[in-house]
């Protein structure tokens, strides 16, 4: 057991860096609490997802190349976002000279909760969070990375976020009517299909409110930014926290 | 009208939009529950997908073999390269029969070919005999859903329509009463029609027979009373063996409506003595789609409509918002192949949530194809502005320094600019949503201070 502690590259999505630094801080502190050696490569920018999903994957060669160069030497890459991780894995444009490096990154990049459950094998967390929590499953985490069983499929139910949260003392996991319906963010969808995006967001918020959720959490701040934006405009009571914030706050 | 415009229009009647969402969610939920009573459900989906994979890999061979076997059974086989040719073939058969009134059971293919208006222009009375289709036909509307054609209408609206068309009691919304009135009305039409048109759900290569699935028995009623049966099928409806049907029939009704099986699964193999069966095999863009490697899987579709019921967009924007014969997620990957310009907004009418792919009984990677269509569409129909801003964004994100400067500028701007400018009407984010509060420092700033 004298192997050096694996070196983790912390990937903080651009909008988290700019708008939600506390999510980045929580992710870093949380990983450190589990004894991880974590570095944040300073040159990181955006993974290119907004461009690719808008139909311009071919214009993201530069960002993809930059990402691969920056992160290729880490043992693991961890990000508090299912959506950006999925993009790095599945939607980087083909770069013939970096094919191997991209494949390596594909295999060693993880969304935070899957890194905790699958790599660090965290179970039976000790901590306290006495609140009624509603979980918003981001679609890219849910059906892209398979962080939980999807309601459409006939498979053994599981949920990686739940397996982490449910052990926290006092935490009540509030089950929703529609457990994995999209919130309507969808990147550029949120502005190109504005009316639909808002309707979908309101319906999600209603579901949480109808189930007495006090704190709405999830693994992707993009969904939460959208839901919180609506809730704050409409004066709704529900509060919002990223999973990393809950875990970091609960575990001392 | 683009999808966003049509969706905005649909959402204006909030109560109705909510009802529409909940009605279709009810169907999806029913499908979820029944699919979970079949332990081998996911295996069945795999199997169905693989059978269709095999079919698409040698469709030409299968089609010719099917034709030979069907002809041996006495079926008259016709080939149509497109909608126009399909319509002409139908019309020529009707002329030969001196037939001026026909009954038709549900066929999305004939909708795709716009057969009804074509025949009506040529003096033929066409009566759709599926209850939902008859309802939308009375209203001169196309179906808004491929399995539930009148799902956008509430029973009050149907009661009003039937009062006007079938003289039912005013204000009587009882579904049994209304259905009974439709039965009597349709019975007359059935008895008069010399020719009946049906669609085809499955065409079995080894036996040369084809299978039509309905819940109302209207296909059978029409065919058995008429002298001539015209069946119209897209060339992708092929399955190799009769035993493959067992896989598809178990998946179809459960996926479509949450029923264990469709009420009538009728096999047509040979015409009765003195009668005729004509089968029209229609391409209409299918071989072109087959040649598009990234999109060929879309031809596996068995038209169950599950992707519509599950789609959070479809449920809240209605079938008409898509402006294509097949709406919803599957329509959004089929239609751009037929007319990319007309349907250019459809692949963007999605959050790429992936629910459609997980619900699909033949495992079409629908949301991945939506993503791929976006890449194709922007090559030819990219609006200049979008292209430019994306290039700009790529320029910023490629360079850490440029990103830092623009990020700082953005945060500073959001702090100092007046609200009226941030929430300007042209900024559609701000119409119904607030922006996040701007923190005083970025994560990177914090990291440099605290960890370096």
Structural account:
- The complex is a heterodimer of chains A (about 250) and B (about 450).
- Chain A is α/β, with parallel strands linked by helices.
- Helix content of chain A is about 45%, strand content about 10%.
- In chain A, the strands form 2 sheets. Chain A has a 4-stranded parallel beta sheet, with helices on both faces. A 4-stranded parallel beta sheet of chain A has the order 6-5-7-8.
- In chain A, helix 12 links the parallel strand 7 (about 215-220) and strand 8 (about 240).
- In chain A, helix 11 (about 195-210) crosses helix 12 (about 220-235).
- Chain B contains 22 helices and 10 strands.
- Chain B is an alpha/beta fold and about 450 residues long.
- Chain B folds into 3 domains: about 40-285, NagB/RpiA/CoA transferase-like (Rossmann fold); about 285-380, Orthogonal Bundle (Fumarate Reductase Iron-sulfur Protein, Chain B, domain 2); about 385-450, no CATH class.
- Chains A and B meet through helix 1, helix 2, helix 3, helix 4 and helix 8 of A and helix 1, helix 2, helix 17, helix 18 and helix 19 of B.
Tally of individual domains of chain A: 2
Poorly predicted sequence stretches spanning 5 or more consecutive residues of chain A: none
Largest interface: A-B, 75 and 72 residues
Rg of chain A, alpha carbons = 18 Å
| CATH fold-level topology of the largest domain in chain A | Rossmann fold
Structural class of chain B: alpha/beta
Query: What oligomeric arrangement do these chains adopt?
Result: heterodimer
Helix coverage percent of chain A: 40-55%
Global structural class of chain A: alpha/beta
Give the overall shape of chain B, derived from the CA principal axes: globular
């Amino acid at each position: 057991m004298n192997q050096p502690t694996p070196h983790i590259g912390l990937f903080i999505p651009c909008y988290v860096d700019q708008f939600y630094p506390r999510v980045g801080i929580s992710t870093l502190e949380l990983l450190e609490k589990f004894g991880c050696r974590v570095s944040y490569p300073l040159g990181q920018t955006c993974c290119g997802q907004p461009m690719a999903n808008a139909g311009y994957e071919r214009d993201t060669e530069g960002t993809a190349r930059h990402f691969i160069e920056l992160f290729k030497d880490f043992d693991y890459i961890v990000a508090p976002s299912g959506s950006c991780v999925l993009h790095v894995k599945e939607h980087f444009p083909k770069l013939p000279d970096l094919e191997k490096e991209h494949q390596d990154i594909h295999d060693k990049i993880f969304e935070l909760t899957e890194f905790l459950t699958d790599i660090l094998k965290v179970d039976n967390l000790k901590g306290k969070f006495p609140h009624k929590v509603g979980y918003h499953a981001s679609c890219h985490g849910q059906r892209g990375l398979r962080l939980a069983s999807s309601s459409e499929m006939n498979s053994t139910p599981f949920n990686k976020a739940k397996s982490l949260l449910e052990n926290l003392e006092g935490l009540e996991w509030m089950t929703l009517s529609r457990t994995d319906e999209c919130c309507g963010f969808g990147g550029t969808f949120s502005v190109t299909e504005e009316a639909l995006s808002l309707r979908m967001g309101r319906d999600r918020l209603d579901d949480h409110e109808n189930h007495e959720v006090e704190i709405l959490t999830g693994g992707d701040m993009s969904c939460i930014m959208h839901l919180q934006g609506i809730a704050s405009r409409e004066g709704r009571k529900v509060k919002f926290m990223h999973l990393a914030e809950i875990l970091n706050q609960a575990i001392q | 009208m683009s999808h966003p415009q049509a969706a905005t229009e649909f959402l204006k009647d909030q109560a109705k939009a909510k009802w529409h969402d909940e009605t279709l969610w009810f169907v999806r939920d029913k499908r979820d529950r029944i699919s979970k009573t079949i332990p081998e459900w996911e295996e069945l989906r795999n199997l169905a997908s693989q059978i269709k994979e095999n079919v698409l890999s040698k469709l030409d061979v299968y089609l010719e073999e099917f034709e030979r076997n069907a002809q041996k059974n006495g079926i008259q086989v016709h080939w149509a390269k497109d909608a126009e040719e399909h319509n002409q073939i139908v019309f020529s058969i009707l002329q030969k029969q001196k037939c001026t009134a026909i009954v038709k059971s549900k066929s999305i293919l004939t909708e795709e070919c716009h057969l009804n208006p074509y025949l009506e222009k040529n003096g033929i009375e066409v009566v759709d005999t599926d209850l939902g289709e008859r309802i939308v036909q009375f209203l001169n509307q196309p179906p808004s859903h491929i399995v539930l054609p009148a799902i956008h209408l509430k029973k009050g609206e149907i009661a009003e329509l039937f009062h006007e068309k079938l003289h039912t009691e005013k204000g009587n919304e009882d579904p049994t009463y209304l259905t009974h009135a439709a039965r009597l009305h349709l019975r007359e039409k059935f008895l008069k029609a010399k020719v009946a048109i049906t669609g085809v759900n499955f065409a079995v290569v080894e036996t040369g027979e084809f299978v039509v699935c309905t819940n109302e028995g209207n296909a059978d009623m029409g065919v058995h009373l008429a002298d001539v049966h015209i069946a119209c099928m897209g060339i992708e409806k092929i399955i190799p063996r009769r035993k493959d049907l067992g896989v598809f029939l178990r998946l179809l009704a459960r996926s479509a409506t949450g029923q264990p099986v469709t009420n009538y699964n009728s096999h047509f193999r040979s015409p009765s003595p003195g009668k005729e069966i004509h089968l029209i095999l229609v391409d209409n863009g299918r071989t072109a789609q087959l040649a598009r490697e990234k999109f060929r899987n879309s031809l596996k579709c068995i038209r169950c409509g599950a992707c519509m019921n599950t789609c959070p967009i479809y449920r809240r924007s209605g079938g008409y918002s898509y402006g294509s014969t097949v709406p919803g997620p599957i329509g959004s990957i089929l239609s751009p192949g037929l007319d990319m310009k007309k349907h250019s907004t459809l692949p963007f009418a999605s959050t790429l949530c992936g629910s459609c792919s997980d619900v699909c009984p033949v495992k079409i990677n629908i949301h991945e194809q939506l993503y791929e269509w976006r890449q194709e569409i922007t090559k030819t129909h990219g609006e200049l502005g979008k292209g430019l801003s994306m290039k700009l964004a790529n320029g910023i994100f490629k360079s850490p320094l440029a990103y830092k400067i623009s990020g700082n500028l953005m945060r500073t701007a959001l702090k100092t600019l007046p609200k009226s400018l941030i929430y300007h009407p042209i900024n559609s984010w701000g119409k119904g949503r607030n922006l996040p509060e701007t923190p005083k420092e970025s994560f990177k700033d914090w990291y440099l201070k605290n960890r370096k």
